[in-house]
Amino acid sequence: MLNDLKQQPADALLALIKLHNTDPRADKIDLGVGVYRTGQGDTPVFGAIKAAEAKLVAEQDSKAYLGPEGDMGFVEKLMPYIFGKDSADMGGRIEGMQTPGGTGSLRLALAMVKRAGYRRVIVGKPSWPNHNQICADLGLEVFEFNHAAADGTTDMDALRAAIASAQEGDAILLHGCCHNPTGIDYTHTEWDEIAALLAQSTILPIIDLAYQGLGTGMEEDAYGLRRVLVAVPEALVSYSCDKNFGLYRDRVGALYAMVADPADLSKVMSNGHALARANWSQPPDHGAAAVRLVLEDAELTAQWLDELDQMRDRMRQVRAKLAAAGKTGGVDLTPVGGQNGLFSIVPFTPEQVQAMRTKHGIYFAASGRINVAGLTMANIDQFVAAVADVTA
Ligand code: PLP
Ligand code: TYF
User: Fold this and answer.
1) With 202 labelled, which of 50, 161, 187, 291 sits at a CA distance of 20 to 30 A?
2) Which domains does the chain have, with CATH numbers?
3) Closest Cα to atom 1 of ligand 1
4) Where in this chain does the entry annotate a coiled-coil region (predicted)?
């Protein structure tokens, strides 16, 4: 029976890590998987997290179970950052739970949606591959709309058409900021329109916020999410701390549900808790406890926000330098300057992606998605020269 299982492809993004590691060239460049890197090419633990971890080791006196909801202090401390200081629980309509990363949160959100009777999820194309994979695994149909228009802005017409054609039983999965893989986000005006369109529909919004603070700022990156939440009766939010606290492998995330009537909140969340028990029982504690300790301490919070600002500033500098290269060989790097977060797509052909790897030792996804944080002031010129070479 087990031998009847079919071979599954490796995760293409995670496979790139190995490909890059086995390349012996000293000047190779890794623009693959989405982790932040400093100007020296490292992905260090945040100073604020190191300090919180030291405190945790010194002070934590038990590792007894917490329950499927995890560390509720962590979950609640994050809420003002996500939903706004003055509307942190929207008048008792929002409750959350800790999950293993943003992925665990998406898994629970979509499983909850399925349980509630939704049948279809509207997803932009392209999206992070795990969105479609989780839907497929849960037996949720995916309805795709084109995310980015040819001119490098969002394809609002495609989104409007998708919303207009929605049926009862549809949910929509939207990237809150720092769109993965395109870096092309909705403008504030576009979010205003999306919120209004969703308010007139029966569609349940699921907002995936995995990069808050890496785009234009902590508050700015929550704009769309907050606009949608004030407009609609119900919504789900999948949150990840794995990028904005640098916790990746510690798997730190949260799921928040907003309901119309506060009286329904505990019933809705009991489904999240039941699904967590059936999946992983309880989330891993360490990373979330460290985040809580950062957010409980004003000095550590200021240090964390400062570290996040530095990350964002560095990515802006890299983007500006790439954009300044302008037309390079057969591609234009200018749009990269106005895009947000870790990723942008450079319109390489599959052969050009391959040539970047074999000829120049520069690794990124087959879609042409580059992790801009993999570039430094020391290697951008090498990247731009390689782009000119393979696209000429
Ligand atoms: N959502 C998007 C769009 C992502 O790119 C990621 C990436 O890692 C996640 C969610 C989940 O992150 P994690 O499960 O590592 O917290
Ligand atoms: O898109 C990325 O690179 C990040 C990291 O299965 C990631 O979101 C990639 C693939 C994956 C899990 C995380």
Assistant:
1) 187
2) 11-44+312-391 (3.90.1150.10), 65-296 (3.40.640.10)
3) 210
4) 301-328
Q: Residue 251 CA: which ligand 1 atom is closest?
A: 16
Residue 161 and residue 143 in contact, taking contact as beta carbons nearer than 8 Å: no
CA distance 175 to 280: 25
Q: What is the CA(34)–ligand 1 centre distance, in A? A: 9
What crossing angle do the helices spanning 129-138 and 101-115 adopt, rounded to 10°? Answer: 40
Report yes or no for ipTM above 0.85. yes
Which of 77, 128, 242, 321 is an active site residue? 128
Question: What does DSSP say about strands 235-240 and 362-363: parallel, antiparallel, or unpaired?
Answer: unpaired
In which residue are the tokens 């038990």 written?
62
Ligand 2 midpoint to CA 248 (Å):
10
| Ranges in the chain, pLDDT < 70 | none
Residue of 18, 33, 107 with the most ligand 2 atoms within 8 Å of its CB, for mutation: 33
C-alpha distances (whole Å) from 265 to each of 39, 55, 92, 270, 300 are 45, 34, 8, 8, 32
Pairing assessment for the beta strands 141-146 and 120-125 based on DSSP bridges: parallel
pLDDT on residue 14: 86
Cα(343) to centroid of ligand 1, in Å?
13
Tokens of 270: 């009991």
pLDDT, position 87: 82
Contacts of 238 (CB under 8 A, 6+ apart): 99, 102, 105, 106, 109, 206, 207, 208, 209, 210, 253, 255
146-158 pLDDT, tens digit each: 999 988 899 999 9
Question: From CA 380, how far away is CA 279, in angstroms rounded?
Answer: 43
The reply to whether 243 belongs to the active site is yes
Say yes or no: CB of residue 128 within 6 Å of ligand 2: yes
